[in-house]
Amino acid sequence: MKPKIIVFASGSKTGGGSGFENLVIQSRNNSDLNFEIVAVVSNHEHGGVRERAERLGIPFVYFPGPFEAGEYQKIIRASGAQWVSLSGWLKLVLGLDPSKTFNIHPGPLPRFGGKGMYGIHVHEAVLEAFRKGELAHTEVTMHFVTPVYDEGPVFFRYPVPIEPDDTLESLARRINAVERQWQPKTTSLVVNGEIAWDGMNSHSLSVPQKYSFLDTAL
User: Fold this and answer.
1) Mean per-residue pLDDT for 87-102?
2) What pLDDT sits at residue 217?
3) Strand order in the sheet with 4-8
4) Of 3.90.1150.10, 1.10.530.10, 3.40.50.170, 3.40.50.2000, which CATH number belongs to 4-120+140-158+182-211?
């Protein structure tokens, strides 16, 4: 039986959801991966996430709020999912098991995380730090999710070089390419128990040595 995942992906009224779509396609076509996407959630009723969900045959859940613990829990119970993957979800998550909930972030954590630090805002902050000589590369990170934005322990880091002539758009393209490559692989490791956390003690995070990716504090 494949582990069942529900994806939360805000997208926008006109687009978004490419990470969700990539997870679905890879789960169906890559025999090395072992998981099933059983539903996707967006706070935009008729946005890009819904379009992709309908095209892929994935149940779509419109979640306009309130973004409270009980509401999240009802959605998870109804879906039958065992795991929650945040992929561009812009709302604070409450009331879920932190050991079963994880997120992908387009920048180094903890420095470039927290409320309001998502998407293009992360790239802006990273480029500003680069131009001040404070760092030479950014990262794609994945972490378990607690009730505080981007606070949970990081279990995946992948460096992405910054070029002197980078723009927000060119940096975002390279970040997105890394996300598409690594998010499905790392997701499979998490939901099959090869990467694990007890949800309470940061020291309990378990990442087998063969999956120990770059861990550089920026």
Assistant:
1) 97
2) 35
3) 60-62, 36-42, 4-8, 83-86, 101-105, 137-144, 154-161
4) 3.40.50.170
Q: What is the pLDDT of residues 139-164, one digit of tens each?
A: 999 999 999 999 999 999 999 999 99
Any idea what DSSP says for residue 148? S
* Residues 39-51 pLDDT 10s: 999 999 999 999 9
- Of 150, 191, 179, which Cα lies nearest the Cα of 38? 191
Phi and psi at residue 37, to the nearest 5° = -85, 115
Interstrand relation of 36-42 and 60-62 (parallel, antiparallel or unpaired): parallel
Phi, psi (deg, nearest 5) at residue 48: -65, -35
Of the candidates 84, 89, 117, the one whose C-alpha atom is nearest the C-alpha of residue 102 is 84
**How far is the CA of 168 from the CAs of 69, 119, 126, in angstroms?**
35, 10, 10
Q: Is 42 exposed, middle or buried (0-12, 13-18, 19+ CB in 10 A)?
A: buried
pLDDT at 208: 81
Distance CA 106, CA 83 (A): 21
Residue with tokens 């995942």: 5
Pairing status of strand 154-161 against strand 137-144? antiparallel
pLDDT at 211: 59
Alpha helices in 63-167 (DSSP H): 69-79, 120-131
Count of Cβ atoms closer than 10 Å to residue 16 Cβ = 23
Other CB atoms within 10 A of residue 55 CB: 10
